[in-house]
Design a protein that fits this description.
There is one protein chain. This protein has 210 residues and is an alpha+beta fold. The chain folds into 2 domains: 104 residues, no CATH class; 73 residues, no CATH class. It contains 6 helices and 5 strands, in the order ααβαββββααα.
């Protein structure tokens, strides 16, 4: 029993001397890829959600929902556009920063508010008014503003850093695995497909095929 204790102590001492692992760039790459991936989650969701919305901007208004109201006014709408618009807005009890002009060869009065939330089109002779109201889509409008870099300033730097971050994740991801499942194996075919896909899509668009 007395001899066994020094043996365990000696054995433990030998293990402690070998506790430090040699430097491995591949292990460092894996750790960085993991931690940078965690960091990118929030920004990725911002760009992913808003990207789906903005990609279909030709099919819907990604930032606003629109309602249309039709009514008739008794206020005369002839004369200069600014005077007619002022009379129209007084009757409808609307106020704000607006601009007015004639459309359709002078048969229609257009009144647009500069925040673009409200627009009116009125038939000068008929008095029929079409009111279009835009309501910001909850959260989606803000995400779209970030995606399109409307804030500028600080957000430009954040967006640029995120672009660099995505490039680092792409490169480091290719180097995590080795062998048949790594870049030298089937990985190269997936990388190649990812490179060819946008080239083919662009070529088909330019040729008018898709």
């Amino acid at each position: 029993m007395a001899d066994s204790k020094p043996g365990r102590a000696g054995s433990g001492g030998a293990r402690s001397g070998k506790g430090r692992r040699p430097f491995s760039w591949r292990r460092l790459n894996t750790v960085l890829h993991r931690d940078l991936g965690y960091l990118a989650v929030g920004l990725t969701l911002v760009y992913a959600i808003s990207g789906l919305a903005v990609n279909h901007a030709h099919q819907w208004n990604a930032s606003y929902s629109t309602t249309l109201e039709q009514l008739r006014v008794s206020t005369p709408l002839d004369g200069p556009p600014s005077d007619a618009a002022r009379r129209l807005l007084d009757e409808l009890d609307l106020d704000g920063d607006w601009v007015a002009f004639h459309q359709d060869r002078g048969s229609t009065l257009y009144v647009g508010f500069k925040d673009r939330i409200l627009t009116l089109k009125a038939g000068i002779e008929s008095g029929e008014v079409s009111i279009e109201r835009k309501q910001p889509r909850w959260l989606l409008r803000e995400l779209n503003q970030l995606h399109l870099n409307e804030p500028r300033g600080l957000w430009t730097w954040i967006a640029d850093a995120y672009a660099v971050l995505l490039a680092l994740l792409a490169v480091s991801g290719m180097l995590i695995l080795r062998g048949k499942t790594g870049l030298a194996g089937r990985g190269k075919w997936w990388v190649g497909a990812g490179v060819v896909l946008p080239i083919v899509a662009f070529a088909l668009w330019r040729l008018g095929i898709a």
